[in-house]
């Protein structure tokens, strides 16, 4: 794929024939932009053809002014239609079909029936079924989250059998995602809000949903059941308002609209993080990377009690108060995986976070990578313990003022919507600690088990280096900085 993309960027577009000084392929010849293009192509490679058509259809619709399609935008650069087709590796027939749909002002992207199930034949297909399919695709991309610790207790439509989608998971090897907890009535209200001119009854919604879910989303999409995790306050408030205003259609529709706007905002935050993560992974092989993305978060202390032994389950140890370890992970996407454990006597404050970040950046120097021209993007949740504090901000300002890094940025996700890849890693770690009858008598036993787990090839394959350490003391950075 890299060689073919490089050959495409070395060519000429149709604009170069009319204007010799202009070539739409030229901006992508720069190494940084070329790596970003490769990352975008790999992202599209994980989608099926209908999802790629939907992405291209949205770009064409955005560039259409009612008369003709003007300059298209690809990774921040204006390109002509031929360059857009060549860079995204789209066929002429597919682009012609999408352009015709945009000019006809269709409400949704046309479906290529060759890549649909046999039950979705043109004779049985209907506009409402296509709208439900687009709706499920939209919520799968914007609301679904990977939840490896709770996929066994998730809900699905009644007609979809559990063993069928497990077989499909083994065949396709896709990542299973889960929608936020809720009922099908709530998602029906969202569908009605998106298409106010169409009539969707609950019976029709369930019948079409069963078919579409079973044959298109049964292997990757589930509806997460209620759990003890903290929920978003804004989502809970809007859902209660929708339930209480069942007799007032206007007020209910207004609350559903506000709930959709809130979910769109949290999705845009995630898209920003995902884009930066892909860029950082594409630049991981350089000796002087331009972008480094870190994500920092701590794990529940209850999962790191020690000593851990089968004998401690006896009734005599019922009132035994076991000490706990504080576990904090710092993932440098594409580079490094760092996990720090500390005893209960060590303060788990912002100074400890700065020590872990400093150790992560020090590992770049040990590998011979220069960060003086790099931007450091640190992602975290909305809590003040890890990165949302003055101590971390002052430490990053110190690095920038001493020209250790070019710039730094701290990003936080919306409260209640902070489940990301580091939380999925914590769920896998908790499953590893529960496996078998492991005897973990000291903190060093935890370090040994976790280090063996991180050395596996199927664990964090994008991060080649890993380190697990015991933090026994912390510098007071609030006085040093």
From TrEMBL:
One of its GO terms (molecular function) is methyltransferase activity. One of its GO terms (biological process) is methylation. The keyword Methyltransferase applies. Keywords: Methyltransferase, Transferase. Pfam families: DUF7869. Residues 328-435 form the DUF7869 domain. The keyword Transferase applies. This is Modification methylase ScrFIA. The lineage of its organism: Eukaryota, Sar, Alveolata, Dinophyceae, Suessiales.
């Amino acid at each position: 794929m890299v060689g073919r993309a490089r050959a495409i960027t070395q060519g000429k577009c149709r604009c170069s024939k009319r204007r010799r000084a202009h070539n739409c392929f030229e901006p992508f010849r720069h190494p940084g932009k070329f790596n970003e293009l490769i990352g975008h192509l790999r992202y599209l490679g994980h989608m099926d053809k209908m999802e790629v058509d939907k992405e291209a259809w949205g770009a064409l619709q955005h560039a259409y002014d009612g008369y003709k399609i003007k300059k298209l935008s690809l990774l921040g650069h204006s390109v002509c239609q031929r360059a857009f087709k060549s860079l995204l590796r789209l066929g002429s027939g597919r682009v012609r079909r999408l352009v015709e749909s945009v000019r006809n002002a269709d409400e949704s992207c046309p479906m290529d029936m060759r890549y649909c199930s046999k039950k979705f034949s043109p004779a049985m297909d209907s506009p409402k079924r296509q709208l439900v399919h687009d709706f499920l695709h939209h919520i799968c991309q914007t609301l679904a989250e990977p939840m490896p610790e709770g996929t066994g207790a998730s809900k699905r439509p009644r007609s979809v059998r559990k063993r069928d989608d497990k077989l499909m998971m083994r065949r396709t090897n896709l990542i299973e995602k889960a929608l936020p907890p809720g009922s099908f009535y709530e998602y029906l209200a969202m569908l009605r809000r998106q298409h106010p001119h169409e009539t969707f009854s609950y019976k029709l919604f369930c019948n079409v949903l069963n078919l579409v879910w079973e044959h298109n989303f049964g292997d990757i999409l589930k509806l997460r059941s209620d759990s003890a995790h903290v929920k978003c306050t804004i989502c809970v408030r809007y859902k209660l308002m929708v339930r209480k205003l069942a007799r007032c259609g206007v007020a209910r529709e207004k609350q559903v609209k506000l709930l959709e706007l809130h979910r769109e905002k949290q999705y845009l935050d995630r898209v920003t993080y995902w884009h930066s993560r892909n860029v950082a992974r594409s630049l991981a092989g350089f000796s002087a990377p331009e972008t480094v993305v870190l994500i920092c978060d701590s794990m529940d202390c209850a999962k790191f009690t020690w000593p851990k032994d089968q004998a401690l389950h006896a009734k005599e140890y019922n009132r035994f108060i076991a000490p706990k370890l504080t576990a904090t992970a710092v993932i440098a996407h594409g580079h490094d995986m760092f996990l720090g454990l500390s005893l209960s006597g060590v303060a788990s404050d912002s100074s400890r976070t700065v020590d872990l970040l400093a150790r992560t950046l020090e590992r770049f120097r040990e590998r011979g990578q220069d960060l003086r021209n790099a931007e450091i993007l640190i992602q975290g949740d909305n809590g003040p313990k890890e990165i949302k504090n003055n101590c971390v901000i002052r430490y990053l300002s110190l690095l920038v003022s001493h020209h250790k890094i070019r710039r730094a940025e701290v990003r936080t996700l919306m409260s209640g919507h902070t489940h990301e890849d580091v939380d999925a890693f914590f769920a896998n770690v908790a499953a590893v600690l529960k496996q078998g009858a492991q005897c973990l008598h000291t903190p060093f036993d935890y370090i040994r088990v976790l280090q063996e787990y991180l050395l596996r090839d199927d664990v964090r394959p994008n991060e080649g280096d890993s380190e697990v350490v015991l933090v026994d003391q912390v510098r007071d950075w609030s006085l040093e900085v």
